[in-house]
Amino acid sequence: MKIAMIGTGYVGLVSGVCFSDFGHEVICVDKDPGKIDMLNRGEVPIYEPGLDELMAKNVAAGRLSFSLDLADAVAQSDAVFIAVGTPTRRGDGHADLTYVFAAAEEIAEAIDGYTVVVTKSTVPVGTNRRVKQIIHKARPDLDFDVASNPEFLREGAAIDDFMRPDRVVVGIQSDAASEVMADIYRPLFLREFPIVTTDLESAEMIKYAANAFLATKITFVNEIAALCERVGADVKQVSKGVGLDGRIGNKFLHAGPGYGGSCFPKDTKALARIGQEHGLPMQITETVITVNEEMKRRMIDKIMDMCDGSVNGKTIAVLGVTFKPNTDDMRDAPSLTIVPALIGSGAKVRVVDPQGRHEGEALLPGAHWIDDPYKAAQNADAVVLLTEWNEFRALDLKRLAKRMSAPRLADLRNIYAGKDAKRAGFEAYTSIGRIGYGYDGA
Length: 442
Known about the structure:
442 residues, alpha/beta, 13% strand, disordered C terminus
């Protein structure tokens, strides 16, 4: 199959590279000359483990290329994927579909022969029908179909998610489109990965419902963690006991400082807005959004309390600022709430993150970036572990504590045991949903 991928952001680039590894001929298109030049030099503009090697392999094989010429790419393709951004629209929380509709208009002018136009971007219910209307209005004579093919990629594990998915969701309207999509995903079908075929609206809704449910699990366990601290329970033991129930499962039941990233914040807001527009408020989702923001602010209080009520004049080392490990994505990361609050309260904040500096320097003005956690801890008054990068999972706690002026540790990912922090020389320790030094688990 010949495929044009419109947009070389996270979803578009990962999808285009993986489709080419399936054996398809893929042209990835973008309007940004700098990004296309970078890709043509073999450089990857995002951090995703393994993506650079897979991209180089398929470029060398002649199956993958990058271009600014949308019209040429579309004209020679059997399927055109729209993978442009749908950021939260200012003012109302809805997904901004400006780029999706603009892409549809350009695609309409370039189609040459039967083509399936596939929306890969996360879009509100009804968007694919509007895409079809836009294309039909521009070219009433065209022979084309639209399809909805939402992505379910976890940043940091996107290639594995694409190659070994829990499921592939395809919303279609015709047998012809079904055949094209079946050909595109044949490598997964042959390996018996589930392919879920639906109507357009159901495919669009599956994406939002899935992300809202996962965001709800995260927020639920974070609320339970807060209650555990009050009643003397241990959230890690509670999560394990709850997660062993097959109806619930153990994934997304790890307490932390709140969810962030490119999907959950944006998609929960969009789902809430869709409900409001249809006169059916999504009350659970709206509450999840509110509680998640409260959880981020609660982390600030935990750090303040650990520092005797004030961080004014104190030096704080923050380990990890991306919203999760194995990505450089800072979008809606808890650090964007926590670090500015610490700086605003008079703290000198040192930041260590393996991949976050590129985006983080502009997003966290006033923070001082350091490459080594032990250097960051030198004469510091507290260390805050905010993102669970592997580099921070095996720290020498004794070495860390010895370097500090006042050895305090806020373990906001529950990586270490309180007894180990105490043994290492930390005079104060706090975590999520556990009882400080009294915690004996791992």
